[in-house]
Write a structure and sequence with these properties.
The chain is mainly alpha-helical. The chain has helices spanning 3-82, 86-101, 108-117. The protein contains three helices and no strands.
Length: 125
């Protein structure tokens, strides 16, 4: 083999080796990236699960409270009807309509943000 051909062959072999080692580095970086993505995914899924439980609890309590409030208003309305008290009938009907029209989801955006940032303290009695 001529000296020039041997040098070309050696350069080619070095390029192949360099390419192989570059490939190995890229492969390791990509494996690490995939592991980080999976870890972030797992954290996000757990956050969704925990937020789900908190949100379900909050909704349950909100609807319990609304139910109690509406029951009391209807009882008051019944008494006002029995007593033929037009002023109280009007007040109770207005309160019932206002309660029904008010969305229980109104403050959930802020609530969810505060839960997500850890600024909210939820008291479970």
């Amino acid at each position: 083999m001529k000296k020039g051909n041997a040098a070309i062959a050696l350069q080619s072999l070095n390029k192949i080796a360099d390419s192989y080692f570059d490939y190995k580095k890229v492969k390791e970086v990509e494996i690490t990236n995939r592991m980080e993505i999976k870890a972030k995914r797992d954290v996000a899924i757990e956050a969704i699960r925990s937020n789900r439980e908190v949100m379900l609890y909050a909704l349950e309590e909100t609807f319990k409270e609304r139910g109690k409030t509406l029951d009391q208003m209807f009882q008051g309305l019944d008494r006002a009807i029995e007593e033929d008290n037009i002023e109280y009938i009007d007040r109770f009907l207005s309160g019932i309509v206002t309660t029904i029209q008010t969305s229980p989801f109104r403050g959930f955006g802020e609530f969810q943000k505060s839960v997500g940032t850890g600024e909210h303290v939820l008291k479970l009695d």
